Every structure is written in structure tokens, then in C-alpha cells.
């Protein structure tokens, strides 16, 4: 696959970076917080594709560790089909028609599905079945009601049906009786049902709209406005979930019990997970409030780690912001200038003391 050319954008001046940090810190208590992507897939050649929302980039890591830009798209989720094609979205908004795009195994790009402007599906989380039906949640403009969370199914001809959901909340049931709080990750189970992360819960949705909560209740708590994000289902029926809130990968066993598979550390949190054979690949982002550093391009902000069945964890790749070098140079320059000014002031003060 030929990677697209990465365009270098002008780096913001140091004052803009400082202002951005200050403004972010002033609004830490705001409910509108960063929401990173959870899209990560591994193809049959061992190539890793993942979403980078801060730079609107889909990256590829080759088996030899080479990092390449695949395409510039704002897609929180990625889907790998059995034919080797990778799918992503350009989210649907009132001012810009969204779409589902496709990258074929030979690297060619095409639009898989381009909806009309009034398409009621958000395409924020999404997944595709074997019949090319696209599943996602309703956009906030759907029926002009933002208090609803529904799982919608869009057929290839654009026909929309409601699978389950209604008024926002948490309740098991069938079709409109079921309630969701907010769906992010989606994954197919071996039995053909759909598993989703719904706030602090993992839910199972059958194709006839029956929704049940897996496990023994809530799997986490909400922290910094985030909770559970991406998930993956193994052939044995275990569900692996990215617990952003508690900085861990949690395994939900078929019997309903849970165990922690990996811990990401103090400054990182997992957002996406995929399974290749028996290995887990975990997409991680900086934890709030440090996530602002990734948004302004300073320091490491995305990393990919691999978790082996025996519990060993290795880091495959860490991505650094494009403004890291200029920020480091500016920081050194400011430090040197500060020392110079301080020494000049001290000498002047000493000379004045001697004269008096």
C-alpha cells in the first residue's frame, strides 16, 4: 500500500501553545472534554492500522516497525472485513455530509457509502455486517431530540431502521424498551450478536433488538468524562474492554467475572483494542488532562502496545507531536534567557550594594 504524503502544517508560536494550555486548564471542570479514537485493526499481513484523532490521521505500522500515513480522515472507529478491506468514517454533521470510506487490500481508496445531507446516523461509532449494512447511533438532530440514544441500521440503499434504544438511560429489554447511555465501541460476537460499550457497561444486542447487560453490572466508573471505549471479542467468547477511566484493559469472562489483563500506567489510558490470534493490540492515548499536549502537538501522545497471552506487554510504537522539537528549543531558549536576565539583575544589585 502506498502511503499518502504527510503535509507538515505550520507550527504555532510558543505564545499560542502557552495560551492553549492556560485556557484548557481554566476549563477542566467543563463537561465537554476530549474524546479520542478507539479504531485499531491488524490485517493478515500483520500491519497495524489505527486512528489518530488529534491530527485526523489513519496510521499504518508495518511488521518491521515502519510508521506511515495512510489517509487524513477523522474516524474514531475502524472496521476490518474478512476480505482484508479496512473501513472508516467521516462523521456526519449538519454542515458536512458524512461517509463510510474503504481502503482495499491493494491500497486503493473509495467511498463505500455516501449518505444524503439529512442522514440521521452519527457515524461516530460504527460497524458493518456481512450484508454491507452499517450500524451506528443516531445523530443529535434525529427527530430533533438529543435525549435519545438509538442503535440504527442503514442498509446499502440508505433505508434506516431502529434496532434498539430510545430515551437515554440504562435498561435491558427489546427494541424501544431498551435504553442506552452512550455507545462507543462495537464488535461482533461469534454467535452473530453485537457487543457494545455503553458508558460504564458492556451490552449485548441481538439482531432482533434484544439488549442485555453483560457481567455483574458496571465495569468501571466515570473519570474525566470518560469510561469504557473500544472492545474486542475473542472466539472463546471473552470480551476485552478498554477501560479509559481506570487505565486498564479488563477481560469480561463468559461466566460474568472480570479480571485485569493489562494496566497502562499513570499518564496513559487505553482507548481501543483488537485481537489477532491470541495477542491483544492496545491503542492508548494520554490521560486527561494531559491529552491537551497531544492536541497541540507536544510530546508523546499515542502509543500501541501488544499484550501476549502470558501477560507480557511490549510497546510497538509511540508517536510524538510535531511541535515537540520547536517547543523544546523554545523552552531551552527561554531558560537560557531567564538565567541571563537573572545574572544581569544580580550583578547590578551587587554593584549597587557596593556603591552604597
Descriptive notes:
It is a single chain. Helices cover 14% and strands 39% of the residues. It has 356 residues and is mainly beta. A hairpin with a 2-residue loop joins strand 22 (268-276) and strand 23 (279-286). The longest helix is centred in the C-terminal third of the chain and has 32 residues, at 324-355. The radius of gyration is 23 Å and the shape is elongated. The chain starts with 13 loop residues before the first helix and ends with a helix. Mean pLDDT is 84; it is low at 1-33.
- Could you tell me the strand content as a percent range? 35-45%
Low-confidence stretches: 1-33
User: What pattern of helices and strands is seen along the backbone?
Assistant: HEEEEEEEEEEEEEEEEEEEEEEEHEEH
The strands making up the biggest β-sheet line up spatially as: 13-17-16-15-14
Query: Compute the gyration radius: what is it?
Result: 23 Å
| Biggest beta sheet attributes | 5 strands, antiparallel
Give the terminus-to-terminus CA distance: 76 Å
- General shape: elongated
Helix content: 10-25%
Extended strand count: 25
Task: State the helix count.
Answer: 3
Secondary structure class reads mainly beta
Task: Please tell me the overall pLDDT.
Answer: 84
Amino acid at each position: 500500500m502506498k502511503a499518502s504524503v504527510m503535509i507538515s502544517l505550520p507550527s504555532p508560536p510558543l505564545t499560542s501553545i502557552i495560551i492553549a494550555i492556560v485556557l484548557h486548564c481554566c476549563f477542566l471542570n467543563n463537561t465537554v472534554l476530549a474524546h479520542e479514537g478507539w479504531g485499531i485493526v491488524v490485517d493478515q499481513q500483520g500491519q497495524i492500522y489505527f486512528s489518530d484523532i488529534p491530527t485526523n490521521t489513519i496510521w499504518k505500522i508495518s511488521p518491521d516497525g515502519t510508521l506511515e500515513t495512510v489517509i487524513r480522515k477523522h474516524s474514531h472507529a475502524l472496521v476490518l472485513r474478512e476480505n482484508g478491506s479496512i473501513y472508516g468514517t467521516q462523521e456526519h454533521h449538519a454542515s458536512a455530509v458524512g461517509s463510510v470510506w474503504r481502503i482495499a487490500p491493494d491500497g486503493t481508496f473509495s467511498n463505500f457509502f455516501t449518505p444524503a445531507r439529512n442522514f440521521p446516523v452519527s457515524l461516530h461509532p460504527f460497524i458493518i455486517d456481512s450484508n454491507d449494512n452499517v450500524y451506528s447511533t443516531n445523530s443529535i438532530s434525529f427527530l430533533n431530540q438529543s435525549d435519545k440514544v438509538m442503535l440504527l441500521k442503514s442498509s446499502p440503499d440508505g433505508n434506516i431502521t431502529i434496532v434498539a434504544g430510545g430515551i437515554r438511560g440504562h435498561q435491558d429489554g427489546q427494541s424501544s424498551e431498551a435504553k442506552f447511555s452512550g455507545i462507543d465501541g462495537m464488535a461482533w460476537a461469534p454467535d452473530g450478536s453485537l457487543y457494545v460499550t455503553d458508558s460504564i457497561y458492556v451490552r449485548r444486542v441481538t439482531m432482533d433488538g434484544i439488549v442485555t447487560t453483560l457481567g455483574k453490572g458496571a465495569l468501571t466508573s466515570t473519570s474525566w468524562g470518560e469510561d469504557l471505549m473500544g472492545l474486542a471479542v475473542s472466539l472463546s467468547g471473552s470480551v476485552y474492554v478498554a477501560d479509559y477511566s481506570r487505565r486498564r484493559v479488563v477481560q469480561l469472562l463468559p461466566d460474568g467475572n472480570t479480571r485485569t489483563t493489562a494496566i497502562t500506567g499513570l499518564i496513559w489510558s487505553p482507548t481501543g483494542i483488537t485481537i489477532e490470534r491470541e495477542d491483544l493490540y492496545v491503542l492508548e492515548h494520554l490521560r486527561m488532562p494531559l491529552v491537551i499536549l497531544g492536541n497541540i502537538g507536544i510530546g508523546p501522545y499515542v502509543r500501541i502496545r501488544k499484550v501476549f497471552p502470558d501477560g507480557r506487554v511490549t510497546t510497538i510504537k509511540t508517536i510524538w507531536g510535531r511541535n515537540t522539537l520547536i517547543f523544546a528549543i523554545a523552552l531551552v531558549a527561554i531558560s537560557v534567557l531567564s538565567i541571563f536576565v537573572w545574572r544581569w539583575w544580580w550583578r547590578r544589585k551587587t554593584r549597587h550594594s557596593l556603591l552604597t
